[in-house]
Amino acid sequence: MSQTLLCSLALRPTQRNFVALAFFSAVACIASSASANLLTNAGFEVSSWTGAGNVLGNFPGWQGVWGPEVGVITGPSGGVSPAAGSNMLELNDDGLSYTQAFQTVDVTSFSGLINSGTATVNASALFNTVGGFTGALAIVNVSFFSGSTYGSLISASPNGALFLDANPQTWQSASTSSLIPVGTTWMMYQVAFNNASMGGNPGFVDNTDLTITPAPGAIALLGLAGFLGRRRRD
Ligand SMILES: [Ca+2]
Ligand SMILES: [Ca+2]
Predict the structure, then answer these.
(1) CB–CB of 4/15 below 8 Å?
(2) Which ligand number lies closest to the CA of residue 201?
(3) For residue 179, what is the DSSP state?
(4) What's the CA-to-centroid distance between 153 and ligand 1, angstroms?
């Protein structure tokens, strides 16, 4: 709402340099339009979730709901307190390579930006585990889909991976960022721990974040617009 207001105000032209100002304002509007966090229950303060199979098998039906493979939303656990609020996500070894949790997001409202080829996704989360050992491997990732089914997978972002320290009182951030493929209409946010690295201990997640911003190229255009504006005044 406020973004729409900001853009409409910025686009009001003056008589003196209509073209430069209109161009500058349009680009500034794009460059400043980073989305809010697209995840629901991003801090796990609502103790509600479903199975991973539900989330992966029915994007529209379980949009905005966390789907851990083996996990719970919990208060302080294993000597670890939530990074913020009262709750966090706990993930436990599922007997496979990685234990994971998923959330799907409909991004069709960003189609204009995404299909211009200039949209970047930014994903991050805070990770922690119990004390006494190092080398726990935590990962954040985003997958891109052309439709509302897993079968429409286009590609995935590079992993944001992090080896955790041995201190249960420190939370560490992992993040990833990449261009969103043209044609993307759904995204799946994913946090994971490598089971073999966990020594049978639980892994914890809090403060998840998923945003869409214009790619750096759009911001470079902003600089060009400023240059053109100055040239007109010379
Ligand atoms: Ca929390
Ligand atoms: Ca730690």
Answers:
(1) no
(2) 2
(3) E
(4) 30
Question: How far apart, in whole angstroms, are the C-alpha atoms of residue 49 and residue 191?
Answer: 14
Q: What is the 3-state secondary structure (H, E, C) of 32-59?
A: CCCCCCCCCCCCCCCCCCCCHHHHHHCC
Longest dimension (CA), the chain: 68
In this structure, what token pair is assigned to residue 63?
């949009």
> Of the candidates 136, 205, 210, 197, which has an alpha carbon nearest to the alpha carbon of residue 173?
205
Nearest bound ligand to CA 206?
1
Residue 69 predicted with pLDDT over 60: yes
All structural domains of the chain with their residue ranges: 35-215
Ion ligand 2: protein residues whose beta carbon lies under 5 Å: 128, 165, 167, 170
Residues in the chain: 234
| Protein residues within 5 Å, CB atom, of ion ligand 1 | 43-44, 82, 84-85, 206
Whole-angstrom distance, CA of residue 81 vs CA of residue 104: 27
- State both tokens at 76: 């302080």
Ligand 1 centroid vs 126 CA: distance in angstroms? Answer: 10
Residue 133 has pLDDT above 70, yes or no: yes
**Element (H or E) spanning 103, and its range?**
strand 98-106
Residue 213: which pLDDT band, with cuts at 50, 70 and 90?
very high
Neighbours of 132 (CB within 10 A): 11
Residue type, 70: V
Supply the pTM of this predicted model: 0.81
Tokens 């189609």 correspond to what residue?
A: 111
* 166 alpha carbon, closest ligand: 2
> For the domain 35-215, what is the CATH superfamily, name and number?
Galactose-binding domain-like (2.60.120.260)
